[in-house]
Amino acid sequence: MNRSELATWEHKFRARVAGNGPLDPAHDLEHVERVVRTAEQLALAEGARLDVVMPATWLHDLVIVAKTGSERSLASIRSAQEADKFLQDIGYPANLLTDIRHAIEAHSFSADIEPVTLEAKVVQDADRLDALGAIGIARAFATGARLGQQFYDPDDPFAEGRDLDDQKFTVDHFEVKPFRIAERLHTELARAEGRRRIGTMREFLAELRKELRIDS
Known about the structure:
Helix content is about 60%, strand content about 0%. The chain is built from ten helices and no strands. The mean pLDDT is about 90. By secondary structure, the chain is mostly helical.
């Protein structure tokens, strides 16, 4: 499938995502579009099949389960099922559907499914990069606000004398998830970008430490 043909399909993918209605700020249409742009860049660099990567990326968050929900780990599997049904309905090539489903299922941190194809690795990397850097900081605090979290523990903001608790404190989340994500990226380009974005997050934490007058 050439890029022009794929672009025609992408209009349908985008319309399907936009039709989901209002979502939380961490999983809205802008998140999907950022991940799509990143995934295309990674796919071109790695030689991954765009006719698998692009639909999987556009449709990776069709089903959102609350982070505090008991079925959080099932969100990517349900998204894959919804995507599969949608792609069949619009007549997308059937021979690509298995790999698209796997790429969607494996993108999720909560599901902990190992990606076994290059395309699934690209989709996972692209989605996880969006949890890092400046946008990662914004998404973390937006999610924390929705969950009623404090920005940080006023008695020990950087968990230097207590266990991390990202259910209560958003700053704790950086160590619990984003910094771990950066260590598990698959593609060379994603790893390089991940290191750069982690640097941004660490600079933010260093500035926060100064503003809170810790060690002063």
